[in-house]
Amino acid sequence: MNKRPLGRSGLAIAPLVLGGNVFGWTADEKSSFAVLDAFVDQGFDAIDTADVYSAWVPGHEGGESETIIGKWLKANPAKRDKVVVFTKVGSQRGGPKRSGLSASWIATAVEASLKRLQVDAIDLYFSHFPDPNTPHEETLGAYAKLIEAGKVKAIGASNLDAGQLTAALRASEIRNLPRYEVLQPEYNLYDRDGFDGPLRDLCLRENLGVVTYFSLASGFLSGKYRSEADLGQSQRGGAVGKYLDERGMRILAALDQVSAAHDARPAEIALAWLMAQPAVTAPIASATKVDHVESFGQAARLTLSPEDLAALDRASS
């Protein structure tokens, strides 16, 4: 499978990233291992998680996803060199002393993530959310120490707008500090406003890698949610109701049309659309079953025509 460079990080990945948010939540350890095995067997190689996954589940405190991935890596040592592991720091997980992007918290959090993942180095370490209380210079300085120590290979940021990302890149340049090489924004056929425009243009201009989250709009773009009655099909259904409007139905109709032309599933078309966007390195997509991963392989093999892309763009405008 063709690899795509993640900006100037020195890392290159296949064109789809496995989302680890479901590990330890809607996918137990056995199911997670099966998904991870199938993902690598398909030729993919990048896995995304965060120290906060899955703190929202009653009885969890965060780190459950990293722990499962770490157990899988330990059970499959030959696969460590075949995968690129992303994780994140900075989300709320137990109050102000266990969140944010201060140098002290990053130094503590990275050790916990390394231990749970059972790795010597994190390939790509993300600032999960902006921290208005910590200067960029402090955060980037903390990352510089981790890179120098060999605990982190490259850094990225999630959920930054164009102004925040510009400020962070400027701080890197002025202070001669590591820069964010990859951005992780919310982006899909429905949710486009946050990335299209200045943020996308900045990523292209600065040669940043882009890996999108909520790539299937919480499952809406799979086509299985078409009315309020469908929302009870999964634990994520509650997040889908906002898409059940006229524009959402127009997007599903376009997905159905293009899917029929390619004998593909709507989710495969939605992922292929993302892979075809000039600014996008790879979408992130989660899976709880092996057949979901097989569908990812189908999406990566699809080539959408200019007419297909135009139809999807018109529907989502």
Automatic annotation (TrEMBL):
Which InterPro entries does UniProt cross-reference here? AKR_Detox_Biosynth, NAD(P)_OxRdtase_dom_sf, NADP_OxRdtase_dom
Entry keyword annotation includes Oxidoreductase: yes
What Pfam family does this protein match (any one)?
Aldo_ket_red
- From the record, give the transmembrane residue ranges: none
* Keyword Ribosomal protein recorded: no
Specify the NADP-dependent oxidoreductase domain's residue ranges. Answer: 15-315
The record's GO CC annotations read:
cytosol
GO molecular function terms listed in the Swiss-Prot or TrEMBL record: oxidoreductase activity
Alphabetic keyword roster: Oxidoreductase
Q: What is this protein called?
A: Aldo/keto reductase
Q: Which organism is it from?
A: Tianweitania sediminis
